[in-house]
Amino acid sequence: MPILRVALNIPVDTLFDYIADEADENDIGLRVCVPFGKKKVTGIILDICSDSDVPLEKLKYIICIFREIPPLSSELLALLRFCSNYYHHPLGMVVMNSLPGKIRNNKPVSFKGTVNHTGFVLTEAGRKIDIATIPSRNTLKRRLWTVLQNEQLLTLRQARDISPRAVTILKGWLDKGWLEEAIETGSDSIKKIVPELTEEQSVAVAAITDKFKQFETWLLHGITGSGKTEVYLRLIDRALKENIQTLVLIPEISLTPQLETVFRNRFTASRIVSLHSGLNDTERLTGWLQAQQGRADIILGTRLAVFTPAPRLGLIIVDEEQDSSFKQQDGLRYSARDLAIFRARQMQIPVVLGSATPSLETYYNVLSGKYRCLRLSSRAVRNAVLPPVECIDMRSEKTADGLSARLIHAIGKCLDRQLQCLIFINRRGYAPVLLCPSCGWAAVCQRCSSRLVVHLQDKRLSCHHCGHQEYFPRACPQCGNQDMIPFGRGTQRIEEALATQFPLARIQRIDRDSIRRKNSWQTILQAIHRQEIDILVGTQLLAKGHDFPNLALVGILGSDRSLYSTDFRAGERLFTQLMQVAGRAGRAAVSGSVLVQTEFPRHPLYQALRQHDYDVLAESMLAERKMAGFPPYVYQALLRAEAHNLTRVLDFLGAAQKIAYSHHAGVEIFDPVPAYMARLKGMERAHLLVQSRSRGKLQSFLTRWCEQLSALTAFKVRWVLDVDPIEF
Ligand code: ADP
Ligand code: ZN
Ligand code: ZN
């Protein structure tokens, strides 16, 4: 009898064996329902063998194999295996967590997945049906039928607008063979403006399409506004002509709807699915199935979409490749960008990494010849140039509530010309801390090693790490002083200061607090485009990708605090962020300028920003990293541990360090240290860093170490390995 080796979502690094009456090689990759303890769970068949390490009489029978959707392909399973090996995470959990929730359920999935822009048309058989056969009291059915007869296509969206029950009725008719699914091919009213490519864009497109169907990692290094998106569009266009699927990965939060719209407007006849965190389970399943069946041509998604099955996959694009949201920060700490590159190599297809400020890892790979770089060095729109950047020396400047006289003057002039300004301060809330001036007490979170942020509007203090909130204390709990002061500035306070300075201006704040409601971001974007807003104040949410045609001035506040951080990546991150915000200005007909308020106007980072010179800064940062022995010159892994009790955490890490020393050839082991956030949500956290100049040596060390760590159960701590960590 065949024995199935099954991946289950169970936190132990093993597969589970079950017996089946019948199963063969072709069933590998299928879903299977099995008994586990007292429960029924669903897993994926990863192997079929004739014997097991478990005695035969102890093996249980499977409950059933689900065959309604095709099995996961061997390529996808290889990607998941690689992921499990590289990140040292149990294979079963890697496999199961890569799948949509509904695939993990103990139920067959419905096969008739449809996406929003698809709809239904009458079949030959359907057209022969007489509407009189539908009873006239059934008004909904009659109405739907009339629409189907009169319009060529009834889209799902329209159907849902007519009635929530409409889709069920339509599916019933689909089963009867009266309807078939069709795709909205776009109305002619949508104007397709396909610009002529710039010289540099043409070179990039030609270089990549020349080498379609072979593996190559391309870096598309283009300044903001250089038209990287247009390059993606042309590549996808070519892919569509060759009948291959494209996977486009984009960062979290930001831009899915905008990019989706751009794609839909350009490729009206193509099938686009988008997979991001805003979807419900059914939508996610539907998109995933469309991709798996090869029915979607373009798959647009965030991090997790890197695991989407796509039988005709021929091109992968990773936009804003430097974005930290490509790295998952809990559980399986994978990098979707790095897995995308692995997947491209495995399938021998090109992968395009796009960025204005590539990560130093990527840039290093270009310098060493591993990746190939294509440059877009000027803005695509005629006459648009990068805005001049100037520093305002805050040591000698008069200020009012954190705004320098020069910035206020510049904003005033901008408003006079009826243009928009953007004030960037990457700190939400009113003030980052509440202080007692007489004794120095500061409000801190009881559960985290962080200070509580002042939110004046709702008179609360809030922890931005765990979400804890409390009311303002009436007096200092330490000395009784009643005059507590909010210290420092956040978006709310700057918004208030701007309102004082410019009482007539229409000001909009944009941060996680102000766009919490679904769609509020969309509404605000529209208002910006209709010029109903004069001044935007906001955090990094504003930095990315948006085109604001009337934006003439960008002011940058409070960025100094990242200049001398202990985190060796802080400078890189700040530079990326500032280049992005600065890039918002002067993208269209309106020319722009950027003002940075700083006490360190001579800092190399600001100098590079002034010259828009990524390369000079990148090279100097790389030189520093080389000297200090940091990535990309070494490969790192972090053993992260947490528990309620710090001593236990440190004891565990001490023991881990000891066993590490027994076999660490070529691998450097550091001492355990508290994490940057030493306490988070009531848990004490510490970590131990290991690193090596050889990725291979680090990997074989980690494999052995991991096995030994699993035996250290007595310490009762939660631990996880973070390979290629980007946060400490
Ligand atoms: P990036 O993503 O590189 O910052 P975008 O792709 O957003 O830049 O392009 C910036 C602007 O330039 C967009 O408004 C886009 O429509 C326009 N654009 C892109 N390519 C061209 C071109 N070849 N000719 C004219 N306009 C272009
Ligand atoms: Zn006090
Ligand atoms: Zn907290």
TrEMBL record:
GO biological process: DNA recombination; DNA replication initiation; DNA replication, synthesis of primer; double-strand break repair
PROSITE patterns in the record: HELICASE_ATP_BIND_1, HELICASE_CTER
GO molecular function: 3'-5' DNA helicase activity; ATP binding; ATP hydrolysis activity; DNA binding; zinc ion binding
Any one Pfam family match given in the protein's UniProt record, by short name: PriA_3primeBD
Residues binding Zn(2+) 2, per UniProt: 445, 448, 463, 466
Cofactor: Zn(2+)
Xref: InterPro entries: DEAD/DEAH_box_helicase_dom, Helicase_ATP-bd, Helicase_C-like, P-loop_NTPase, PriA, PriA_3primeBD, PriA_3primeBD_sf, PriA_C
Transmembrane segments: none
Amino-acid positions noted as binding Zn(2+) 1 in the UniProt annotation, renumbered to this chain: 436, 439, 476, 479
Entries under PANTHER family matching the protein: PRIMOSOMAL PROTEIN N
Description of how the protein assembles with itself and partners: Component of the replication restart primosome.
Family the entry assigns: Belongs to the helicase family. PriA subfamily.
Name of the molecule in the record: Replication restart protein PriA
Naturally occurring in which organism (per UniProt): Nitrosomonas marina
Gene transcribed to yield this protein: priA
